[in-house]
Design brief:
The chain is mainly alpha-helical. The chain contains two helices and no strands. The chain has helices at about 1-20, 30-50.
């Protein structure tokens, strides 16, 4: 019976050790993120300018 407790403890220790080793950290450089944000903002402004209706041409009234 004592052997099963040791085996269970060893299995639980191994499981916790393996789960602790699975960590992924991703870091984004601030300058690259800012550059990408500026590019997106510029594209949005260009789309908005294209979507704005053009002013109708002034009509010439002849008398």
């Amino acid at each position: 019976m004592k052997h099963s407790h040791v085996s269970a403890l060893a299995a639980m220790s191994a499981a916790s050790l393996l789960s602790a080793c699975v960590t992924i950290n991703i870091y984004f450089p601030a300058a690259a993120a800012e550059k990408a944000a500026d590019k997106i903002i510029d594209e949005v402004w260009q789309l908005q300018k294209k979507a704005e209706p053009a002013a109708p041409p002034a009509s010439k009234e002849t008398k």
